[in-house]
Every structure is written in C-alpha cells, then in structure tokens.
Amino acid sequence: MSFFDELLKTSQHLSKHRNPHLDDEQILQADDLSVRYESGAALDEVTFSLNAGQRLAIVGPNGAGKSTLLQVIAGVLTPTSGQVHIFGHAPGGHICIAYVPQRSQVDWSFPVTVSDVVMMGRVGQLGLFRNPAKHDWQLVNQALEVVSLTQLAKRQISQLSGGQQQRMFIARALAQEAELMLMDEPLTGLDVNSQEQIFAILDQLKTQNVTVLISLHDLQMAAQRFDEVLLLNKRMLGIGDPELVLAPENLLAAYGGHLHLVPTEDGLLALGDTCCEGEHDHA
Amino acid sequence: MLEFILEPLQYAFMVRGLIAAVLVGMVSAVVGTYIVLRGMAFFGDALAHAILPGIAVGYLVGGGAREPLFWWALVTAILSSLGIGAISRNTQIKEDTAIGIVFAGMFALGVALISTVRSYTVDLAHFLFGDVLGVRNADLWLIAAFGGFVLLAILAFYKEFMVLSFDPILAATLRLPVRLLDFLLLVLIAITIVVSLQTVGVALMVAMLVTPAATAYLLTRRLPIMMALAAAIASISGVIGLYISYYLSIASGSAIVLTCTAIFGLVWGIRATVTRRRAQQF
Prior knowledge:
The complex is a heterodimer. By secondary structure, chain A is an alpha/beta fold. Chain A has helices spanning 2-15, 66-74, 114-120, 123-126, 134-146, 162-175, 192-207, 219-225, 242-245, 248-255; strands at residues 28-37, 40-50, 55-59, 81-85, 97-100, 180-184, 211-216, 229-233, 235-240, 260-264, 267-271. In chain A, helix 3 runs parallel beside helix 6, helix 5 crosses helix 6 and helix 6 runs parallel beside helix 7 (192-207). The longest helix of chain A has 16 residues, at 192-207. Chain B has one domain (2-281): ABC transporter involved in vitamin B12 uptake, BtuC, CATH 1.10.3470.10. Chain B has helices at 2-6, 12-37, 41-50, 52-62, 66-90, 95-114, 120-129, 137-156, 158-166, 168-173, 178-219, 223-248, 252-281. Classes of the chains: A alpha/beta, B mainly alpha. At the A-B interface, helix 1, strand 5, helix 3 and helix 4 of A face helix 9, helix 10, helix 11 and helix 12 of B.
C-alpha cells in the first residue's frame, strides 16, 4: 500500500495531475482529529472548518499540539482518527497547502541562496524533469517583492536575520501559489519591528484571499491582532471571537496553574506561558 | 619537470589508473555532496564495508571476472541499506546502532568468505585498500557507464533531492515521492561505492565520499558550485595521489586519500587564519 502511494505520488509529480478545487466546498474541514501516541494523546477530537480568506490564530500552551494540528492539516502527519478535507478532498492530493516551518527546524548553513529557497516552492508545480521557466522566476521575484527581500535574493540564507528568515519562508509559500498557509509560530523570537512586518504581509495575504492558519503562544497578541482564535490544549476549548474564547474559565482549562489572571481596568489580564523561544512539539 | 609528468604515462596501467581515479573522484564527490549535507557519513562508511560479502561471493562465483563481482556487490549494498532501514523502523533501536549492527556483521561475513580462498591476504588487501593500477579496459567502461548513470540521475532529480535534503516537510507538502527519492539516493550511493571500489577499496571509501565534498563546503555557499568544486578537488587528488604513489612507492589508494585529506587541511587552515585576521581587523 505504501509502495503504491509512492508510485501514485511519482505519477502525479510527473503528470502534474492534482485534485480539483470545488468552489462549493470549504477550503478546510477538520473532523474529529485525534493523534495518539503510546505516551498519550497529542490531539484529541478537534473539529473546525475555515472559509477561503479567513484568518485564524491557534493559541495554547507549549505541548498543546499546535504544530501537530498544523502538520495533520498539511497532510504530513497521519491522524490516528478523524479526517481532513481540503476543498472536499484529502490533503495528500493538494499542493496548494504551504507549511511555513519554525525557524529552528531548518539547517541554516545549507548551501542555498534566498531565491533558491523561494524557488523550492515551485518544485511541486514544475513536476519531474522540468526546469524553472520565465514564469516561475517571475513568481519568485514577485513573492520576494511582497516580503521586501528583493535586495537579499542572492544572499546565502545564514546571512539573514530572524525576521528575514521568516519572510523568506512566507515568500516560498507565495511562490507555491498556496491558498492555505499554515504558519508555525512565525512571530516567536522576533523583535517588534519584524513582527509588524509579518503582520503587514498577513494583511496583504488577506487581500489576495489567502487563508491563513497561524499558531501563537502570545495570548495578548492573539486577542489584539486576530479576529478569530482557536484555543487548544490537545482538546479544542473554544473557537471564534477572542473575547469570548479567551474567557478566564477557558484559559484556566487550557493553562491550568501556569496562568496568572490579573484584574485590570478593562477586565482580566492573562499573564500566560509566553516564554520559550522556539517551541518544540513532541510530534 | 615535463619528464617528471610524462614518465609514468608510458605505462598503460598508469594511464588507465589515472582515468579511473578521475572518473571515480568526480562521481563520488558529487554524490558525497548529499552525504555531507544530510549527515550520512557513517551510513556511507558502513555501506562500503557491508558490501564485502557481496564482493567475496562474486569473486568466488566468477573466478576473478569483474562483472559478477560488480552485480553481487550492488545487490548486497541495496539489501544492507534496506536492512538498516527495517531494523531502525521496526524496533526501538536507533538508526546509527542499526547501521553498526549490519555493517559489522556483513563485514565479518565478507572476511570469513574471503578467508576460505587460498591467496587470502593478497586478495583481501585489494578489496580493502583498492588496486587502481590493476584496472583493465573493461573496468574503465563499467566505471564510465555506471558513473555516468549516477551523474545523470543526480542532474535529473536535482531540484527534488535539494528540497528533500533541505526541508523534508516541504517535500511532503509538495507531495514528492519522498521515500522513493530516499531509496533512489541510497541506490546511487551504493552504485558509487561499487564503481569506486577498485580505486580506494572498502576501508578508505568514505574519504572519497566525504572529504572532497567537505572541502568544497568550506569554500562555497552554493550547491552547484559545491558539487563542481568537490568533483575538481577529488579528480586532482586522484591524479596527484597516483604520481605520489608512483614516485614514492606508496599504496595508490592511501596516496589518493592522503592527498584529499591534505587539501582539506590546507583549505581549513587558510580559512581559519583568514577568519581570525578579519575578526582582529574589526
């Protein structure tokens, strides 16, 4: 069966045949997703859906299963039970899903330039035995322009700052012509300026009707900058308007004793577990 | 000076040896680029050792003919790499331990098989340390054909191998046939080891795979340039090594490997000095 899968993938990569996008289907439908290991559940019956162009922040403590959820949706990790549908089909048949990795997941001394990495996003559309054509370079250059990295296109990737590294990965997702972008902690470890640059890019993605699912561990940022959040601690504890979802009783359920609720003039301020640069999920 | 260069060339075995060393150097250095970038040096070393029983069986079956030796070695290499994968996937044993188990077991089996032959020490030494001056015309064709196949495959799957080595999750979301590509790379490494066998032998093989590529890695930050530089360094080392071997009567395989190592040492030393100078200037 696995050998057959590989052959199928090879023929699709060769022929460039992909699942069609049906307009009347939702871009993402996740049903009862669970991932269980011998040590316990990493994800427990998560169900939600997204419409095209929506932007959703996933928040939760370290080890809540945020990366696991993103990887299941990307079709990289197979759930123990439950199903993901992208435009009505399993994610494995789509190359319109981009996973924007955490910066710590990549070897930055790899001998490639920024434009090499962005061009990697085109490899799926190119298919086997085809080299990048003019059209592909145009897309790469456009993507670099969107994230303001045109000047650094020929730089080796180790010479980039953290914010530039993150923007390069977003450019790669753009070059992939992704309609669903899954961003794993893109704001972690960045200074305020770099974070604002990412937010500006996110706003531009919204105008292009790109659907973005973004994991965060900064509750305050989720509440202030996102219209919709999903609170996760293995189970889904709420989804929707941050003011309702991030209510104290939900936060206590998600964070337990690790959260301090401080009363302020506007209500309760949650001082959460916002530590730990580069969260490592036990995927 | 000219005489110094031309003198060894009057011997046909030297000319054949030089051609073999250059061909093998190019192929193993290009494949070695991926071995260095993916941190597979131990795997490469183990695979080279693990093919010894295949060589022994090929040798016993073929009575000294090259072709059966080649095919038996190739099959053994592929079986060994599958075995390593099977052990580390299906048990709690980590991959490097699995490599150690298969590598040592297969190597011992090879030595045992060869020891059943009468001229045991001479033959074993050839397999272990290479015999590039014993290369025949037919061997050269075999090296050229299979080496050419390996280089063509690396070229054809260049962008897929690059994505797979840099970011496996991207490879998965682009729906590349990741496991098939991984297996193809293993087969290419196996073929490279088998064609390089006669030049440096089983024991020194890993140097041909790793040292020129690592030297190139110190010099450039572009993958295609790294491959070209590694190939150039390996070929030059092959030529210089054979001349050293001719004039100083040193075993050819070790002379080639020592030249590779010396070039690495030189580049590393120069780089270290330059970086220190720069650091002092600022």
